[in-house]
Amino acid sequence: MTKILIVDDEPQILRALRINFAARHYEVAVAADGGSALRQAADWHPDLVVLDLGLPDIEGIDVIHGLRGWSQVPIIVLTGRVGSADAVSALDAGADDYVTKPFGLDELLARVRAATRRAAVQQVETPVVRIGDHTINLTDKTISGGVRLTPTEWHLLELLLRNPEKLVSQRHMLTEVWGATYVTATHYLRQYMAQLRRKLERDPAHPVHLITEPGMGYRFRP
To answer: How far is the CA of 172 from the CAs of 60, 175, 179, 182, in angstroms?
Structure first.
């Protein structure tokens, strides 16, 4: 059974999530504050953590830092509003995804399934990926149909393709490709992502693979 640690200081949310996840054959542990969450994670070694950012004792961001000091367990954060600075900071600290409160259970379950799938295959390289009508080989950097990419386009595309369904933050992409001094140059990302969509998506105006999460980052959806 997949082991999930749920961290939230609202008893109703903890109870509802514990019941619903257990009903779907997950093994569930709960914690109502950051200190308990870190101790529980160290003792129990969950397969995934659902973490509310607004905790009474320790900031959710600090819990992420604490976990990332020794573990790569997938972390899905719960945040109060779309595009919040807290959610961006959580992604930059090492969270894998986020869900905005109030959230639907189906949405959270889908994010959990996606994160656990990624974790199960994270050691397996997938050198060949399809986007629309194109086959992309990440090993020899070729694309079917004679599509050519610049080195910068390749770098951005690889960041997304090697993390399928994961939300990759703007800050991470900018830092990886252009360096730490460019973390606010989001217009670079918009321009390059538009170019990638024109080259790879069947309908660049309505992309289905290279997805924008407004104010947050980008996601590759296979």
So the answer is: 19, 5, 9, 10
